[in-house]
Specification:
Blueprint (H helix, E strand, L loop, with lengths): L1 E4 L8 E4 L10 E10 L1 H8 L1 E3 L5 E3 L14 E9 L13 E4 L9 H4 L24 E4 L5 E3 L5 H19 L10 E4 L3 H12 L5 E5 L2 H10 L3 E4 L5 H9 L3 E6 L4 H9 L1 E9 L13 H5 L2 E4 L5 H12 L8 E5 L3 H9 L6 E5 L2
Parallel strand pairs: 10-11, 10-13, 11-12, 13-14, 14-15, 16-17
Antiparallel strand pairs: 1-2, 3-6, 3-8, 3-17, 4-5, 6-7, 7-9
Helix pairs in contact: 3-4, 3-9
Length: 354
């Protein structure tokens, strides 16, 4: 198979030939039709995370091996499957969304359908094994394939990461009155998807925060009721002013030092901040304020298989508004990554098979 792979961190992707996998056991081989370009791909491409005062966390220390075909937002057509997948309704040519956050498949978390939280042997597609920036991808289990009838496959691809990620984070804030403001920090692909999910769930107050005025315009178009332009100083104050007071729920899709500090400072008593983004840095807090304000700081890592199925069902019901999508040929993966890194993408870029 052909892949557009990271061969050396920080260097342009290379078009290389890799052996086409032969499915065994419960595995299913798909021909990739669509692959989303996610901001976390940039971290994988660059090879490290900013851990603030603790320095850099190298992706190789987490088990990443090169060359690697990135891409975890994958839609493809079924080609063949292993003997364990027989009798599961698979047919050659079926279009399926692939759940990429694969775990060991055997631990308690995995058995509950929470493979995204597996600590035994994480095997996420596009991170620990080849993903969607290729002509073919190997799904490690037939249960990871989700039908997407009635949906635009380019849009459906985004649900495997941006969709399920924001859905899972928003669920951690609930229950919350629909008239209470929820703050979404970051108005990129994840932020617009978060606004869409909140609207689909019937939420009526959504405040978007970003450093880019153009992205805030996109957030308004997506359905945000308030917007705040983030700057090095005063962002928390402007969030509180826009929302009519300190807020009970914030989803930080950037999760850098400045965004997390502003989000914490804007929390009301009993409020919750859910941290999602991987921008990096560190959060320094006056510790007495955590119990005094009775706030919760919680991380949220992508989402589970049941959560992804719920997002797809929400989209198929017609309640989930689409986010802006642009497409590029798979061979233009480098161009798409660089445009994303430069902040020139509104919504999501999807690589499509040639």
């Amino acid at each position: 198979m052909k892949a557009w792979a990271v061969v050396e961190n920080g260097k342009p992707l290379q078009e290389i030939e890799l052996p086409t996998p032969e499915p065994k056991g419960d595995e299913v081989l798909l021909e990739v039709t669509h692959a989303g370009v996610c901001h976390s791909d940039i971290h994988i491409w660059e090879g490290e995370y900013d851990m603030g005062a603790r320095g850099k966390l190298r992706m190789t220390d987490r088990g990443l091996k090169l060359p690697l075909a990135m891409g975890h937002e994958i839609v493809g057509r079924v080609v063949k499957w292993g003997p364990g997948a027989k009798g599961q309704g698979l047919k050659k040519g079926q279009l399926r969304l692939v759940f990429p956050w694969v775990g060991c498949g055997e631990c308690a978390r995995c058995r509950k359908g929470e493979e995204n939280l597996c600590a035994v042997r994480p095997r996420a597609l596009g991170v620990y094994q080849n993903g969607g920036y290729a002509t073919h991808v190997l799904a490690t289990h037939w249960k990871h394939l989700i039908p997407i009838e009635g949906l635009d496959p380019a849009l459906a691809a985004t649900y495997a990461c941006s969709g399920v990620t924001v859905y899972s984070a928003i669920r951690k804030l609930m229950p919350m009155p629909k008239t209470q403001p929820i703050v979404v920090v970051g108005a990129g692909g994840l932020g617009l998807q978060a606004i869409a999910v909140l609207k689909a769930l019937g939420h009526r107050r959504i405040c978007a925060v970003d450093v880019d005025a153009a992205k805030l315009e996109a957030a308004r178009a997506q359905g945000a009721t308030e917007t705040v332009l983030a700057t090095p100083e005063g962002t928390a104050k402007r969030i509180i002013e826009a929302c009519g007071g300190p807020v009970l729920g914030i989803v930080d899709l950037v999760n850098g030092s400045q965004s997390a500090t502003a989000a914490f400072d804007a929390l009301a008593k009993g409020g919750k901040m859910v941290q999602v983004g991987l921008f990096g840095g560190e959060l320094r807090l006056p510790l007495p304020l955590v119990p005094i304000k009775a706030v919760t700081i919680q991380g949220s890592y992508v989402g589970s298989i049941p959560e992804l199925k719920a997002v797809v069902k929400l989209a198929q019901s017609g309640k989930l508004p689409p986010i802006p999508i642009s497409t590029e040929p798979m061979a233009n993966a480098n161009l798409a990554l660089n445009r994303l890194r430069e902040g020139k993408v509104t919504g999501r870029t999807i690589l499509v098979a040639g």
